[in-house]
Write a structure and sequence with these properties.
The complex is a heterodimer of chains A (about 260) and B (about 350). Chain A is mainly alpha-helical. Chain A has a single domain, classed as MetI-like fold, CATH 1.10.3720. Chain A contains eleven helices and no strands. In chain A, helix 3 crosses helix 6. Chain A is globular and about 65 Å long. Chain B is built from nine helices and 21 strands. Helices cover about 25% and strands about 35% of the residues of chain B. Chain B has a six-stranded mixed sheet, sandwiched between helices. Chain B has a five-stranded antiparallel sheet with strand order 16-20-17-18-19. A four-stranded antiparallel sheet of chain B has the order 2-1-4-5, with helices on one face. Chain B folds into two domains: about 220 residues, Rossmann fold (3-Layer(aba) Sandwich); about 140 residues, OB fold (Dihydrolipoamide Acetyltransferase, E2P). In chain B, strand 7, helix 5 and strand 8 form a beta-alpha-beta unit. At the A-B interface, helix 7 and helix 8 of A face strand 6 and helix 4 of B.
Chain lengths: ~260, ~350
């Protein structure tokens, strides 16, 4: 028993170090330089602004479309529910460049949607819109799964009681479900935002220019080598870590017991 | 009025089958059943939370098939209260009500108004039940559905809340359907008792009738009748003596044999009953032998067990190898100086024997 415990602790610690050490090393060695570069490097500043705005736009779209999907899949026991849930996870499972290629097929100039958008004067490929779609594709499933978990934590009997008290479905959602799942939904949106900020594979296929921070770090690495890529990579890491830290703070705050009305 | 005819419903893998009962307008219906019998699902089906899959449900004479829960004019109280944790106690009580004065009045009557400034998380289980009850009553629903609403209250509070609820029910003419597993509660409150088991109604009717005349030995045991004997019955000529109870002319004396015992009973028709049921409270104990007749059963037996629970004492007798249970007040048990191994006499009226 004791040997097994020691072995498990050792393996766990090694994996922990393996996961944390590269990120810590990157931020510690190049974080300061990255911060200073922000003052002088206009391209980095532009990439940072572009990444933040496109990730925010993608997250907004994800929340608007993903919340009803998550609620329906979680609450409605319809036939084929498992299949719908499985399809929603698909974008998480395919390699991201493949996701980019698939998006190119649907949104590219030759495609019906891309062509129609072009006719309306909206270029998707090679524009911020393309970045938003790529981010949305790869990160919305994370929001949906987080939102489903948030809804699952709200006992449907709260909603049942609210309905018997005279509220129709939508009013119950607004007055009961949303306040009770709000914290979980915000957490899911933050995870989605961080994932969108970090996306590279799908973006690089659909929009190389203008560059997001992830594409810029890759560009600097291939054009100028590791030294030039490091500060950009460090900035990207910090940008992705910020909301996640905020999320942790949110999670560990006191949260109400949503399991049942009974005292613990 | 709550009227279910052949009502069916499905909640997950659980099903309600062919549920038929009526709770007249302004009456108090009590649903009794063991855990997992479908009591809560039945309330949720009446509330429209669980969709009905068969039959008809009428509330106040109106068919409810297409009516959503918010338009059924009913209140629902779950056992655990389900108070909204993001709202204050006062906001909870006022959630569905439009009249602030009515909210205050009903909450005060139930003793929930004093809790209004407390945080929901700080309330005890019993306090949650009071608030949930006030919340459901505040909009003055025509029908009130209650799922073990007094289970977490201490005995004194339970008694006063039950009394107040009964008063409100009478004043407002609210039709109530309450789930309980407490038979005493069913007897105290109910105008109609509905016995539920494994998603089906075993029996429904006036509580005293259901208690005294269970439709099957299963119902009898389920309702806590200790003496359920299997055997055979036959009519006998002799009529029970009129002095021993109002025997209607239709009633006939019946002799019921179970093992070595012969039990006299009265029945208005013997449709080959296979069981005799005698509630323990109907069995009297004495130290002296008494005269046996076809109107009164009389046996001698040896005490094998005495168990006292508060004011009530249960005494098990071995009567020729058959166990007979008598329930008497603890005081009487003391007066008789009962002890295990003692020989005593047990008697019960033929009228107290229910054949099914």
């Amino acid at each position: 028993m004791r040997v097994a415990s020691v072995l498990a602790a050792l393996l766990g610690s090694l994996l922990f170090l393996f996961l944390v050490a590269p990120i810590a090393q990157l931020v510690v060695t190049s974080g300061v330089e990255g911060g200073m570069r922000l003052g002088t490097d206009a391209e980095l500043r532009r990439a940072l602004g572009l990444t933040a705005t496109t990730a925010t736009a993608a997250t907004l779209l994800g929340v608007l479309g993903g919340t009803p999907i998550a609620f329906l899949v979680e609450r409605w026991r319809f036939r084929g529910r498992a299949v719908v849930a499985a399809f929603l996870d698909l974008p998480l499972l395919i390699p991201h460049p493949v996701a980019g290629i698939a998006l190119l097929l649907v949104l590219g100039r030759e495609s019906a949607v891309g062509g129609a958008a072009l006719d309306l004067g909206l270029r998707i490929v090679g524009s911020p819109a393309g970045i938003i779609f790529a981010m949305l594709f790869v990160s919305a499933p994370l929001y949906i799964s987080g939102a489903r978990e948030a809804f699952a934590r709200v006992d449907p009997r709260y909603e049942a009681v609210a309905r018997t008290l005279g509220d129709h479905r939508w009013r119950v959602f607004r007055r009961v479900t949303l306040p009770l799942s709000g914290r979980g939904l915000v957490a899911a949106a933050v995870v989605m935002w961080a994932r969108a900020v970090s996306e590279f594979g799908a973006i690089v296929i659909i929009t190389y220019n203008p560059k997001t921070v992830s594409v810029l770090s890759y560009d600097r690495f291939t054009s100028f080598g590791l030294r030039e890529a490091l500060p950009v990579a460090a900035i990207l890491t910090v940008l992705a870590l910020l909301p996640l830290t905020a999320l942790r703070a949110l999670r560990y705050e006191r949260r109400p017991d949503l399991g049942a009305g009974a005292p613990a | 009025m709550i009227e279910a005819r052949g009502l069916g419903a499905r909640a997950g893998s659980f099903r309600l089958h062919d549920i038929t009962f009526t709770v007249p307008g302004g009456a108090y219906g009590v649903v009794i059943g063991p855990a997992g019998s479908g009591k809560t699902t039945l309330l949720e089906t009446v509330a429209g939370i669980t969709p009905q899959t068969a039959g008809t449900l009428r509330l106040g004479g109106r068919d409810m098939q297409m009516v959503p829960p918010e338009q059924r004019g009913l209140g629902l109280v779950y056992q655990h209260g389900y108070l909204f944790p993001h709202l204050s106690v006062e906001q909870n009580i006022a959630y569905g009500a439009s009249d602030a004065a009515a909210v205050r009045e009903v909450a005060t009557r139930l003793g929930a108004w004093d809790l209004r400034d407390r945080a929901v998380e700080s309330l005890s289980g019993g306090e949650r039940q009071l608030v949930a009850l006030a919340r459901a009553l505040a909009p003055r629903p025509a029908i009130l559905l209650l799922d073990e609403p007094f289970s977490a209250l201490d005995p004194r509070r339970r008694e006063s809340t039950r009394r107040e609820l009964r008063r409100i029910h009478r004043e407002w003419g609210t039709t109530v359907l309450q789930v309980t597993h407490d038979f005493t509660e069913a007897g105290l409150l109910g105008d109609v008792a509905i016995l539920l088991d494994r998603g089906r109604v075993l029996q429904s009717g006036r509580p005293d009738e259901v208690f005294r005349k269970p439709a099957s030995p299963y119902v009898a045991e389920f309702l806590g009748a200790e003496n359920v004997f299997a055997g055979t019955a036959r009519l006998i000529d002799a009529n029970p003596s009129p002095a021993d109870g109002a025997v209607e002319s239709m009633h006939q004396a019946v002799e019921f044999r179970t093992g070595p015992l012969t039990i006299y009973a009265v029945a208005n028709a013997v449709e080959s009953p296979g069981y005799a049921v005698i509630r323990a409270e109907e069995v009297l104990l004495s130290l002296e032998p008494q005269l046996a007749s076809s109107a009164r059963n009389h046996f001698s037996g040896r005490i094998t067990e005495i168990s006292t629970l508060g004011a009530l004492t249960r005494v098990s007798l071995d009567v020729d190898g058959t166990m007979l249970v008598a329930a008497l007040t603890t005081r009487s048990a003391h007066e008789l100086e009962l002890a295990i191994g003692m020989e005593v006499y047990a008697s019960f009226k033929a009228m107290a024997v229910h054949l099914c």
